[in-house]
Amino acid sequence: MKNCVVIPVYNSPYIDEVIKDALKYDYKIIVVDDGSDKKVSVPDDVILITHKQNMGKGEAILSGAKKAKELGYNFFVTMDADKQHLASEIHKLIAAYKTDSIVIGNRDFQHENVPDSSKFGRKFSNFWVKLETFKTLGDTQSGFRIYPTNILDLNIKNKRFDFEIEVLALHSYRNGNIIDVETDCYYPPSDERVTHFDKVKDNIRLSLIHTKLVIQRYLLLRGILWR
């Protein structure tokens, strides 16, 4: 079977461009519309899953994972709908993939349009994930990833932006492999940038999930909590 790409989308004006980019490389595409205000339409050869209301990026990825598994795929690639991830770079993730691994596309931040807040956020996230997983990773905030479909077996509680942190920790707790690989990306100028990250609500969610995961790791080490 061809490789499978899952694209979660919520109110992105660039979704058509992202789909066309992936189609150029003959990937099977699953678009998950996470309750967008304007109905998303896709070409006939693209699978569309629609959430009636916005449920969060993590929930959209899990919906895509379920469909990918149903279609017989063992893993799938995730791309954001903001044009930042390039379909031409997917082959690098696939080349690095090993059975049941999560592969993260470590974005090249040597672009003039990358804001300082994003650079700081990545360093901050990498620091905490290292404490939670004992793994040194270059870009724990990247949504350009390969997931094995068995992430559906994880007891993931957080379904918004904090999903992408929790899934790394839970996968690591069961001794799952996490690989990162350098990838190029497109970082649009500020007037073209689309983000649904709430600097207050989502930063609170991320602080809470990091606190929870650090405590879990400590309890695992002490033998108080089991995988």
From TrEMBL:
Coiled coil start-end: none
Protein name (database record): Glycosyltransferase family 2 protein
Biological process (GO), any one: protein N-linked glycosylation
UniProtKB keywords: Transferase
Source organism superkingdom: Bacteria
Keyword Transferase: yes
Ranges for domain Glycosyltransferase 2-like: 4-138
Pfam family, one: Glycos_transf_2
Signal peptide stretch: none
A single MF term (Gene Ontology): transferase activity
Classification via InterPro entries: Glyco_trans_2-like, Nucleotide-diphossugar_trans
